[in-house]
């Protein structure tokens, strides 16, 4: 799915700003059929939850409504007119004046609604968007809604981060020529100093296709025509970790000499591959350093914010991180564009977090009922997961920064039914994108003895909390467990292995001369212990710490003002461990710590 941009043939109007806002319990039956009578206004993009002081809004279950007036530019007569929602968390229904024009389920992937027949160029319309924060067993991520003793509905879910909801990313109105470029797919390879860009273009309205590839100075390096083909770049400059190099691919839909539509996208020439126990980027072994992150800031919740994005990338670079994981959902596309431009590698994760009843079972990991059952993750959940994968890959397939798909976080891969659930999804991903390896991050209860699906995947990704949830304060025992765990996976799989989560909650300013949990020293020591163990294994291909920054969670007794495993606080101030990481990671250029330059 192409990101909407303004080009010589397309116009784009951002609808970000302050919209009217109301929750449904205060509204008449059909709120979209009138101007919302509400004193509240909400910022877009932002999650709505932390904007207001009323707890009934923050934890509301059911629809909320956003509304604003939209002026359609008068020059758009004869064009197709679309609304683009970069994200509506978790489902949406869209109304133009009184008419329902479309909707979407899935809170972290974009959708378009063609409103050509419902609006008039030069006229204004009332845009009402109903957004639901609800999570059920047929949404991704899943959740459960119950009616409590007070008679009110309550939402529970099986992940710790707070369920921020609303219009957290940009909304725009854009125009498209009737005949237009609908989709572009690029796959890149190289042979010696020659780069190749294989492209495939889909058009609507029956046009011919012409493409050209230019360098940063705008010099055209290669051209081709036809909806599929190969462009060759002599003396190619590869897109490399830490040294992003981008070309621009311009795609024209043409009729003879007439250009009916034109679209441009950035292309980085690079390859990724798993070979034996190695993860290769451009044919060279690559070692991931970095973090699992969250889209999470004060007041905005999961609202995209360019300033935080720039600052977070600066802090990652400062620590020497060369990568991050979009835990636990696809991030705003602007973030991937930024990673493309700055040579940061992305493990692109779906929103399939919480497919695990064992987590509800607590530290024993004994599920209250089977995860892979109609009651929880059944056929409908799997269908929603498949649709989510289609949308994620459809959006992110052309980003050079995306090097690995992570199709679930901590699923119950140790339970019966996991294979039946995951095998079709893995096949789907391989069909949608044969070029990138696939992984899932593995919960502690999924061990090298009981996991049922690892053979379907390319990379072993562990989430481990020795020294925290188990062996808290006892790093010596934790080290022995960790060593045995990694060795077991290596013996079982022969695949590259990495750690996608390890860490310790840490209160900045809390210190101790002993191994005391929650202190800054304990976080630093725990990470050093993990690193010592990783460095013993040549098969180890990466380390991503949980988490980049402290983040908001649901209320819970083991969360003090949120999850505090951040290397940075929620305000982005470094804890002591940040300086230790900087020492370990800087200057590695993708090499394994300790390896020769
Ligand atoms: C996990 C989850 C992550 C949590 C983390 C924790 O295993 O994947 O979402 O935040 O543990 O800190 O408990």
TrEMBL record:
Residues 272-587 form the Glycoside hydrolase family 2 catalytic domain. Keywords: Glycosidase, Hydrolase. Its EC number is 3.2.1.31. PROSITE patterns: GLYCOSYL_HYDROL_F2_1. Transmembrane segments: none annotated. GO terms for molecular function: beta-glucuronidase activity. NCBIfam families: PRK10150.1 (NF007538). This is Beta-glucuronidase. InterPro entries: Beta-gal/glucu_dom_sf, Galactose-bd-like_sf, GH, Glyco_hydro_2, Glyco_hydro_2_cat, Glyco_hydro_2_CS, Glyco_hydro_2_N, Ig-like_fold. Residues 179-270 form the Glycoside hydrolase family 2 immunoglobulin-like beta-sandwich domain. Pfam families: Glyco_hydro_2 (PF00703), Glyco_hydro_2_C (PF02836), Glyco_hydro_2_N (PF02837). It comes from Microbacterium luteolum (Aureobacterium luteolum). Belongs to the glycosyl hydrolase 2 family. Residues 14-177 form the Glycosyl hydrolases family 2 sugar binding domain. The gene is uidA.
């Amino acid at each position: 799915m192409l990101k909407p941009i303004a080009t010589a043939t397309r116009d784009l109007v951002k609808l970000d700003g302050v919209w009217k806002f109301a929750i449904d319990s205060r509204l008449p039956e059909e709120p979209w059929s009138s101007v919302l009578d509400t004193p509240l206004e909400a910022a877009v993009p932002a999650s709505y939850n932390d904007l207001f002081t009323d707890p009934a809004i923050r934890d509301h279950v059911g629809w909320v409504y956003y509304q604003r007036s939209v002026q359609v530019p008068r020059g758009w007569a004869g064009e197709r007119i679309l609304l683009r929602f970069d994200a509506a968390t978790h489902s949406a229904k869209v109304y133009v004046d009184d008419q329902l024009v479309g909707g979407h389920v899935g809170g972290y992937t974009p959708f378009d609604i063609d409103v050509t027949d419902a609006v008039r160029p030069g006229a204004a319309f009332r845009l009402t968007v109903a957004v639901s924060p609800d999570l059920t067993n047929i949404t991704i991520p899943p959740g459960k809604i119950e009616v409590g003793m007070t008679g009110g509905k309550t939402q529970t879910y099986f992940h710790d981060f707070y369920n921020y909801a609303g219009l957290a990313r940009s909304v725009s109105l854009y125009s498209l020529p009737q005949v237009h470029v609908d989709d572009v797919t690029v796959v890149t390879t190289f042979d010696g100093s020659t780069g190749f860009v294989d492209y495939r273009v889909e058009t609507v309205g029956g046009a011919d296709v012409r493409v050209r590839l230019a360098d940063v100075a705008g010099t055209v390096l290669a051209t081709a025509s036809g909806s599929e083909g190969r462009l060759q770049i002599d003396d190619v400059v590869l897109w490399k970790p830490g040294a992003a190099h981008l070309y621009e691919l311009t795609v024209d839909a043409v009729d003879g000499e007439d250009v009916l539509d034109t679209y441009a996208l950035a292309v980085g020439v690079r390859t990724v591959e798993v070979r034996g126990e190695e993860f290769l980027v451009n044919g060279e072994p690559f070692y991931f350093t970095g973090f699992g992150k969250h889209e999470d800031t004060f007041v905005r919740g999961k609202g995209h914010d360019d300033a935080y994005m720039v600052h977070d990338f600066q802090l990652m670079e400062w620590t020497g991180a060369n990568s991050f994981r979009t835990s636990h959902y696809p991030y705003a596309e602007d973030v991937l564009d930024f990673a493309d431009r700055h040579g940061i590698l992305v493990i692109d994760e779906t929103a399939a977090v919480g497919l695990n009843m064992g987590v509800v079972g607590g530290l024993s990991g004994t599920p209250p009922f089977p995860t892979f059952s109609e009651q929880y993750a059944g056929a409908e959940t799997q269908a929603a997961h498949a649709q989510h994968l289609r949308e994620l890959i459809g959006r992110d397939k052309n980003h050079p920064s995306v090097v690995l798909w992570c199709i679930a976080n901590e699923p119950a891969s140790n339970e019966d039914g996991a294979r039946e659930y995951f095998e079709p999804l893995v096949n789907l991903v391989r069909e949608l994108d044969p070029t990138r390896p696939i992984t899932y991050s593995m919960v502690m209860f999924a061990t090298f003895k009981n996991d049922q699906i690892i053979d379907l995947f390319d990379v072993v990704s562990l989430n481990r909390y020795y020294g925290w949830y188990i062996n808290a304060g006892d790093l010596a025992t934790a080290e022995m467990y960790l060593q045995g765990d990694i060795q077991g996976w290596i013996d079982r799989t022969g695949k590259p292995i990495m750690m996608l989560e390890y860490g310790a909650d840490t209160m900045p300013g809390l210190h101790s001369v002993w191994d005391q949990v929650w202190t800054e020293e304990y976080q630093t020591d725990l990470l050093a212990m993990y690193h010592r163990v990783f460095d013993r294994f040549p098969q180890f291909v990466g380390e991503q710490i949980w988490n980049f920054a402290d983040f908001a969670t649901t209320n819970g007794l083991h969360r003090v003002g949120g999850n505090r495993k951040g290397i940075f606080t929620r305000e982005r101030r470094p804890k002591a461990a940040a300086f230790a990481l900087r020492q370990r990671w800087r200057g590695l250029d993708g090499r394994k710590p300790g390896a020769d330059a």
